[in-house]
Design brief:
single chain, alpha+beta, Transcriptional Co-activator pc4, Chain A, 3-stranded antiparallel beta sheet, 3 strands
Length: 102
């Protein structure tokens, strides 16, 4: 009895980038959802004074609920690997530092 290689049935993955592809850094992500999709809005946050926090949104991405769940799984797996390598991440509030945050 011969066993088939499950990878032999998979199509070859070819990754390319479009002309408008860009990398960006975000330290702010807002998530909105509806019955049809999830909308992720990425931005950068800065604070020049204690009274005002500035968020400059630069990219919005729509995901189907299925893709949002797939992203959740991939991020969870990668965060687990990150913490095994570099230590546990904490979501505790960072102490207020004197001066602006950039």
């Amino acid at each position: 009895m011969s066993q088939q290689n499950p990878q032999a049935d998979q199509p070859q993955l070819k990754l390319t980038t479009t002309e408008d592809y860009r990398d960006g850094y975000a330290n702010s992500v807002q998530v909105r959802m509806s019955v049809w999709d999830f909308f992720l809005v990425f931005g950068t946050m800065s604070q020049d004074n204690p009274e005002e926090l500035n968020v400059k949104n630069f990219q919005g991405i729509y995901l189907s609920p299925q893709q949002a769940k797939a992203l959740w799984n991939v991020l969870g797996h990668n965060l687990s690997q990150y913490e095994q390598t570099f230590g546990t991440l904490s979501l505790e509030p960072v102490p207020q530092v004197d001066g602006p945050v950039h």
